[in-house]
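Handout for the seminar on molecular recognition.
Each group receives one record of this type.
Step one: identify the two inputs.
Step two: read the structure output and locate the region that could contact protoporphyrin IX containing FE.
Step three: write two sentences on what you found, then compare them with the reference statements printed after the record.
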Amino acid sequence: MGCHQVDRTRVGPPFVAIADRYKAGGDEMVGYLANSIRNGGRGRWGAVPMPAQPQVTEEEATAMASWILSLASQQ
Ligand code: HEM
């Protein structure tokens, strides 16, 4: 949580913004975001890259991805 907050930009984008961007993709987005969490990435939100999180297991990443997607605003 040093880099992300639920509803405000910190180093990384807010989790609600991530949820809103990907919610239309449905269940496939859980796997996509789980990979994003473990591999990190750059250029999708801004100039600052996210480092890979190899200490996060696939199972943990999947759980976090599901939780993030659950934060999407209802509309
Ligand atoms: C387990 C911890 C973390 C989780 C669950 C997480 C989750 C995410 C997710 C789901 C995305 C969106 C990826 C996409 O659009 O495909 C993202 C992007 C990002 N995260 Fe994290 N993150 C974590 C740790 C961190 C850390 C430690 C940092 C900072 C050192 C960070 C900084 C960023 C940044 C800068 C982006 C935007 C990257 C881009 O523009 O492509 N994140 N994160």
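Reference statements: The chain has three helices and no strands. The radius of gyration is 12 Å.
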